[in-house]
């Protein structure tokens, strides 16, 4: 029997199962709280690099990486504004640190699972649900989803989606409490690893009103990272932040 | 004679000079192409750290740094979307690199001067126009201006302002042409400095379909920076990018 004769009848009993796009539309609708218009965008947002598809353009394979780039920027901006308004008397160092904790890969992975996005991702091995080596996949897909929502539904909708449906999974006060600063996090790392660590101000410029300092982190008597700032404290924070980035990338 | 009797008459001859806020309103109006509503926001956007003011909150001094944080995020997002749409067949690595060249501090300093923002900045020494050590001041103020415009006039206006009034100062095709990749820029640096440099893949994970590589930059036989990526080439680019960041911060 031809498929197109049977499927409308079957779909009465298993609504939507016959049409994966319809299923996706419904799932995305639940997640974003509105009817998606361009389902293709969401399909792309959920396609991990490992399932990337060749295109008519030679050397250009399509996956959610471009949407992730866009969504990362949209998410970053909406969170920036949210924190700016929530903490009118906190400086930009605080706002930057709290934002980076909110859009942290592990946290985004968690939110992605909470809203059920993980079950929709298409990746190499997705039929057997065996995970690839890199599990930042969930958070990446969440950022890509934000990119897709932005292109599909515009800025005001996306802003509300981020604030109501994503940020609601955070306890921001708790995030702030856990805000150990970079320097103390680096010192903890050194203690854990049995390394000797110290900070040195290696340069300062400016006059009595206006100064800039360069701080260096020294690990086991070897220069490890440097950072600059308007005060010694800020320069040390910046150097410690660079050092932590280096450690994370190894 | 009381000031409020004379000033309306004087202002007929030197319009606005009697009221710095009026002057600022006019100058900002020229720059953004619309009447600013909350002039205080723009005043704050133009107040460099060196001219920061104490507030009622102990330890919290007010300058344009918070608005710079917000504007940086808004600018980053609008440029991200612009490049995403302009280059539909370029990967996220390309888009990220071109964006970082557009929002590069030196470039922003230049645009800030071109639109005349530099003459409006309030900083320590601004009466004599003697410059502080740190000249990223212009670009910082431009980002803060974007933050102020966003809070004052909303997203659609700010997006148009960035695209029409700021991006118009760029020759994007030229920016793209100058897109030397990180690895070749790092190699040029090593040649200039007479350093020996090589890249090594120090780790790889995954299966035949899905891999992640860690690359290390080695300068004069010392590990210098590492980076990761889905291909050896991307891992090397990422390591070279980290190395360039380290060099810039010293």
From TrEMBL, chains A, B:
Needed co-factor(s): Mg(2+)
Keyword Nuclease tagged: yes
GO CC terms, sorted: cytoplasm
Catalytic machinery residues: 72, 143
Domain DRBM: 181-249
EC number, as in UniProt: 3.1.26.3
Record's subcellular location: Cytoplasm
Any GO MF annotation of the entry: double-stranded RNA binding
One Pfam family from the record: Ribonucleas_3_3
InterPro entries for this protein: dsRBD_dom, RNase_III, RNase_III_dom, RNase_III_sf
Keyword RNA-binding belongs to the record: yes
Residues that hold Mg(2+) according to the record: 68, 140, 143
GO biological process, one term: mRNA processing
Ranges for domain RNase III: 21-154
Gene3D superfamilies: 3.30.160.20, Ribonuclease III domain
Organism domain of life: Bacteria
Catalytic activity field: Endonucleolytic cleavage to 5'-phosphomonoester
Top-level enzyme category: hydrolase
Keywords from the UniProt entry: Cytoplasm, Endonuclease, Hydrolase, Magnesium, Metal-binding, mRNA processing, Nuclease, RNA-binding, rRNA processing, rRNA-binding, tRNA processing
Self-association and partners: Homodimer.
Membership in a protein family: Belongs to the ribonuclease III family.
PANTHER family named in the record: RIBONUCLEASE 3 (PTHR11207:SF0), RIBONUCLEASE III (PTHR11207)
Function statement: Digests double-stranded RNA. Involved in the processing of primary rRNA transcript to yield the immediate precursors to the large and small rRNAs (23S and 16S). Processes some mRNAs, and tRNAs when they are encoded in the rRNA operon. Processes pre-crRNA and tracrRNA of type II CRISPR loci if present in the organism.
Protein name (Swiss-Prot/TrEMBL): Ribonuclease 3
Protein's gene: rnc
């Amino acid at each position: 029997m031809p498929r197109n004769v049977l499927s409308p009848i079957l779909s009465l009993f298993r609504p939507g199962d016959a049409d994966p796009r319809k299923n996706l539309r419904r799932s995305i609708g639940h997640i974003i709280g509105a009817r998606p218009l361009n389902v293709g965008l969401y399909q792309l947002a959920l396609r991990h690099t490992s399932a990337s598809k060749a295109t008519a353009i030679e050397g250009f394979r399509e996956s959610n990486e471009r949407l992730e780039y866009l969504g990362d920027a949209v998410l970053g901006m909406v969170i920036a504004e949210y924190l700016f308004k929530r903490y009118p008397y906190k400086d930009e160092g605080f706002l930057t640190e709290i934002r980076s904790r909110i859009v942290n890969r592990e946290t985004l992975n968690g939110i992605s699972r909470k809203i059920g996005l993980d079950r929709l991702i298409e990746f190499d091995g997705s039929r057997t649900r065996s995970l690839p080596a890199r599990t930042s996949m969930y958070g990446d897909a969440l950022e890509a989803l934000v990119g897709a929502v932005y292109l599909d539904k515009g800025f005001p909708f996306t802003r509300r989606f981020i604030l109501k449906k994503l940020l609601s999974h955070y306890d921001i006060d708790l995030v702030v409490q856990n805000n150990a600063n970079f320097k103390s996090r680096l010192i903890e790392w050194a203690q854990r690893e049995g390394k000797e660590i110290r900070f040195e101000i290696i340069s300062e410029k400016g006059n009595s009103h206006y100064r800039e300092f360069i701080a260096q982190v020294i690990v086991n008597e070897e220069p490890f990272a440097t950072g600059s700032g308007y005060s010694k404290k800020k320069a040390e924070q910046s150097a410690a932040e660079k050092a932590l980035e280096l450690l994370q990338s190894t």
